[in-house]
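User: Some background: our group keeps a shared notebook of sequences we're curious about, and every so often someone picks one and asks for a predicted structure to add to the entry. Today it's my turn. The entry only has the sequence so far, pasted here. Could you supply the structure so I can complete it?
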Amino acid sequence: METISIRGARQHNLKNISVDIPRNRLVVITGVSGSGKSSLAFDVLYAEGRRRYVESLSAYARQFLDQRAKPEVDAISGLSPAVAIEPRVPTSSPRSTVGTVTELADYLRLLYARVGTPYCLRCDRPLTRHSVPQIVDRVLALPEGSRLQIMAPIRVAGRAQFDLAVQELRRAGFVRVRVADRTYELTDPVPVATEFDLVVDRLIVKSGIGRRLTDSVETTLRYGRDVVKIGHTGPDKAYHEHLFTQTLRCPACGFGYPDLTPAFFSPNSPEGACPECDGLGRLTAGRDKTPQKPCGPCAGTGLRAESRGVRIQDRDIAQLGGLSISQALDFFRRVSFSGQAAAIAAPVCQAIRSRLQTLSDIGLDYLRLDRPLPTLSGGEAQRVRLSTQLGAGLSGILYVLDEPSIGLHPRDTARLLAALRQLRDHNNSVVVVEHDPETIRAADYIIDLGPGAGEGGGQVLATGTPHEVQAQAGSMTGRYLRGELSIPVPTRRRTTDHYLTLGGVQVHNLQNVTASFPLGVFGCVTGVSGSGKSSLVLHALAPAVSQALAASADAPPTLDGWQLIDKLVQIDQSPISRTPHSNPASYVGLFTPLRQLFARLPEARVRGYGPERFSFNVKGGRCEACLGSGVVGVDMHFLPDVYVECEVCRGLRYNRETLEVRFRGLSIAEVLNLSVAQALEVLTDLPKIRPRLETLRDLGLDYLRLGQPAPSLSGGEAQRLKLARELSRRPAGHTLYLMDEPTTGLHLADIQRLLQVLNLLVEAGHSVLVIEHNLDVIKTADFVLDLGPEGGQQGGQVVAAGTPEDLARVEHSHTGRFLRPLLASA
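Assistant: Of course. Here's the predicted structure to add to the notebook entry:
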């Protein structure tokens, strides 16, 4: 079958749509925010593909899997097993790293276990196992005529043990021992020593001694506890000694290793974990066991000393894990082995190089292998997981991705597109939810949804190739693609004489950076992925300003100009709440005036209802059968849990008495079910409520329902809700707004609305500084600070600073290079 055919999709706001998606193609689903893109891609396509796969498993297997209900769709045909790759960090565990997620850590452990060289932690000498034939061959290779002494090193604790050992050796028929480089007959008095060598045999190297030498070595290994010492005098009359061992024990001091296994090199295994910090790399404190300072004994690696004593080309596994992707790739291109180790290492090194190359190809060459996954951005985490799928080499799979271009500089978009095409060319169907114009133009097929958001969306506006969609009048995306609509370049740039300056920044990869940010303007911090943008703005500037505003006496000496700022507002994409009882209305401060409004109604006053009666989170007004959730979960064992509408409240979350109080014919539950746009029509004459709703509308969130559960919101929606809450507070004085990629999840039409809001803030006398890759935002900024020139250790420097026009004139600025054609066309 050549297409995935969807008929009658009604999930969320989808309007009973039918669409055919070509198989084994790169398909982009686009449209304004809230138009139903994720509903179609994830809640219909992916959910049904996963559900069908799970249903094919046994009942026993299904009980261990998170199962989902069938999406609201009449029919889907041509569906393949589905894999979702979303821009979210799937774990908060610091034990999960770039290396563990990509399986690179597993391959490194295998490599060290099989061909690593252990070193004595006391003597720093390499330890090598030698079999009896190997020892014999080494001895027979000595110059003919060399005089040999085959000796077994023996250690005792004191005089009593020494005397007992000498007696046993006499009874066994041995005649000589060597103490402090002198040879004594066992029939004579022997000076007491805690260490001495038993002379098992004396030979001269010549042909025909092989059998006797083998027997002597075997005997020596038995008495020397797997260690044999060969003393020999060659033609030059000089005496030499060589130590051989059958185990990984230092023949000189006795320090030993167990058998090397991959688990021995894992901080997550008892065999390899540092006993002091239990493999975390940081010491914990308090009841919640929160990691505090780095662990001293393991130097923050989480590995015991013995695990770090095994090396490959003078690097232990922790040092190799501390390399960036590009540095590790360079190491494995140069590393070489000899003999049997070369044959063992070849397939492992090839697998490592392949995975490293894939990570580099999708623009992640600046990440370190030991970088904890929770410290990655959503876009970085998504591309890390994309690299594992590329390395798997599967075919016949449906891959569904949500904005893979998040956090990606335009320079690296081409590398991402090459990776997506590689997935497609392995006979996979790749469906991408995306707003990036370059990705949309590179698609084989486009599905444009709209025309609006929420109830105003959920319809198919256009389908076809980029050229075909561009020609369709009803497509909002097509209008931007053909240039009919665009975000204009400002006719003037704002200027100022006031600057916020931060000097000597060395956080993460920043190389003693000094940066000045003009106040009272719209500023952008740009640069390729990993160049140090978040380090500068979120990890250096924000804490320094917060510290200065909290206590001016403790203001960092490296911060200047902060006295002009009255307040700092930092807005990121973290969830507003993880509980479904939180919603947009409660977060932006709408729920309280709504409850007060209902409490003032005549019916409520007659019944004596206060504002708390209209909360579904407290006892009294909520439905007690479902505790205000609206649904009741039913455990179905090996089938997915079923969440059914509460029979008592019919999903309305309140009890019957509370719902009898109505405002303009609507109960509190019906008001919470309104979208922002609908609520503006009903509540437009209420001065405490209308401004907050208008702010949500201006930020492109008019499709959100007031009572929508917080966990269902995307990172971009959460960030704009935070901005809406701050805007609704009408801040006094000069506020500095710091934002991290506010365009995430926004269509070009929504970006235009967002820019209008941000510029209104600046016009009101505030400062806005955003971390951004979107060129349409960068070209409208008054000031741009570009970091780089590359990512990781090759970044962390100021490449250019000034207006977008200034940046475009800097030859070695990647951002400037992409700005030039945009500014020239304007």
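Suggested note for the entry: The chain has a mean pLDDT of 89. The first strand starts at residue 3 and ends at 9.
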